[in-house]
Amino acid sequence: MESMRTGRPQTLYEKIWDAHVVDRRPDGTCLIYIDRHLIHEVTSPQAFEGLRTVGRTVRRPDLMLAVPDHNLPTTARVDPQGRSVAVADPQSAQQLALLRKNAAQYGIRYFDATAPEQGIVHVVGPEQGFTLPGATLVCGDSHTASHGALGALAFGIGTSEIEHVLATQTLLLKSSKKLEVRIEGSLGFGVGPKDVILQIVAQLGAAGGSGFVAEYTGSTIRDMSIEGRLTVANMAIEHGARSGLIAPDEKTYAYLRGRPMAPKDHAWEAALAWWRTLPSDPGATYDKRLLIDAGTIAPNVTWGTNPEDVTPITGSVPDPEQFADDSRRDAARRSLDYMGLVPHRRMEDIGIEHVFIGSCTNSRIEDLRAAAAVLQGRKISSRIRQAMAVPGSGLVKRQAEEEGLDRIFIESGFQWREPGCSACLGMNPDRIPAGERCASTSNRNFVGRQGPGSRTHLLSPAMAAAAAVTGRLADVRELMGNARELTP
Amino acid sequence: MKPISKVEGRAYPWGAKNVDTDVIISAQWLKTISRRGLGKGAFESLRAQPGNIFDDPRYAGAPILIAGDNFGCGSSREHAAWALADMGIEAVLAPSFSDIFSGNAFKNGILTVTLPQPAIDRLIEVTKNHEIIVDLETMTVTSNLGDVFPFAIDAFRRQCLLQGLDEIGLTLSMESAIDDHEHMTAQDRPWLSAA
Ligand code: SF4
């Protein structure tokens, strides 16, 4: 539609942008309308406080949804007598109570810790149909790009911007450059969406998408489930892009149909008609392009303290001296020191003590199924001190339990937890002790991310399960390949 | 917001690349419900190391930080900007910044100045012994050794910083345009008007 108006082929990003411009300044800065706003306990208190200080109010509480996730312990939230369990950490308890209070005061929809819908904001949004194609969606969290998997222009914002959205339902923004990441072909056995995004981050670098909105295209993306696409878009920020988009298609519509907050009946038909006009027009141009052949992607794993520090599982720890760039070399040296690794060590020889399956990257039902398929009939290694499976939401948890996945996790030696951010970041009791090593399905391996001194290796759910079973970083293809030979 | 036109004084001659916001302020500090008091948590993991730049008496209380490429990457936590502001930083100079960080810094009255790598390298040398001036009026970074590095900055941001304007107040003055947009959406895409 927009393209007919301007007479020039447009990308998905440009179409969404144009449909949300409230005002355009001469310098190109636009006031952009925000359709959906997700709120959690950690980044919002100061924004509400800011509003109150100057006597402002929330313009459109009906377009917002508040869910606690970051601080919430993932242990039982109701005791055997059915009473809710208090959060022990006083500061966490204070933030959680404040979220509840702010939501109530301003009439914002809120899922409490014990509600079946509660979960990680980026899992809850799509699952509830709160996230819609063509919508602008923000949240005070850098992994908000996740929602781009459904064709929403979604990005993380800071607390002052949260305050701006609360008060005005808009944001002042400059449009970004356009990056196309095209992945073509089929993924090999044992290779999944997490390996795809780790590959993209490795090839673009941590800052390679800085100033860009990424659009992931190509047959590999089209063939991916919505869950898989969410994993890919989730990590756009790890290559520096504030948003990552995937064109909505029949899979997107099938996923959304009937979700609690998705449009219904006539509204659904009208929405569908608009959504179908959104995909990038043939001939639309991008400022930068990256093409990846899916067949070249192996199960990936990180070795350092930046998500761009990726190697195939068959590879080894790089020698910092091999980096031409001084600062990269320095960073690699520091990474290896922190990670307790030496150059040339084979990745498959690295022993681990912890396994974390969860986070907004990999805590949806397909992730749990992929891990359970590896764990079925196996036990975790005696080397493993703690293995946690943390569903992304109460609804994911319930579905997994209906499918019997919880039994598989528990019987193999995993703990089966309540939904939340958990060990993705060291803000709640789920932490990795200093100097210990974790195979983690989360999205960041930064210094101290999983707790002070923690050592993180990012990988896919299937690879995390393989690591749990072997007690080291392991090639899931070998583990599963051998199993298939054993049971012809 | 307090108007800002010039930042003058010592600088931390640092230059580290890809400094993420977890490094600027770690997750343990995010449980606060206030914007103040985070300076003592700033760069905590670095400060645990002896001989670190932030505890070097030569630079104590410096209002300027010289950083490397992609400063402020990672988590969107505005706490990073609050922590810098609370430790007295008023301007950060780097070859590039993460988008989210520079937005957050701006909203808290911290100037983020993008300069080419050679200029940053030179300023790292200069600031080991000398003060510098970051001037928003003339859009230059200068030293008393004769260095003059011009920089570009978004005109709107510059005006807001110079005049100490409140962005939310400015946007609220556009309320009728926001109303119009909502009416249009309610007609053309009613399903977007209600979540
Ligand atoms: S799971 Fe991790 S990355 Fe995702 S929202 Fe929670 S803390 Fe952020």
Automatic annotation (TrEMBL), chain B:
Keyword Membrane listed: no
Keywords: Amino-acid biosynthesis, Branched-chain amino acid biosynthesis, Leucine biosynthesis, Lyase
InterPro entries the record matches: 3-IsopropMal_deHydase_ssu (IPR004431), Aconitase/3IPM_dehydase_swvl (IPR015928), AconitaseA/IPMdHydase_ssu_swvl (IPR000573), IPMI_Swivel (IPR033940), LeuD (IPR050075)
Domain of life per record: Bacteria
GO cellular component term, pick one: 3-isopropylmalate dehydratase complex
Pfam families: Aconitase_C (PF00694)
Domain Aconitase A/isopropylmalate dehydratase small subunit swivel: 1-117
GO BP: L-leucine biosynthetic process
E.C. number: 4.2.1.33
Pathway connected to this protein: Amino-acid biosynthesis; L-leucine biosynthesis; L-leucine from 3-methyl-2-oxobutanoate: step 2/4
SUPFAM superfamilies: LeuD/IlvD-like
Catalytic activity, as annotated: (2R,3S)-3-isopropylmalate = (2S)-2-isopropylmalate
GO function term, MF aspect, one: 3-isopropylmalate dehydratase activity
Listed transmembrane segments: none
Biological function: Catalyzes the isomerization between 2-isopropylmalate and 3-isopropylmalate, via the formation of 2-isopropylmaleate.
Family membership: Belongs to the LeuD family. LeuD type 1 subfamily.
Assembly behavior: Heterodimer of LeuC and LeuD.
Record protein name field: 3-isopropylmalate dehydratase small subunit
Native source species: Sphingobium chungbukense
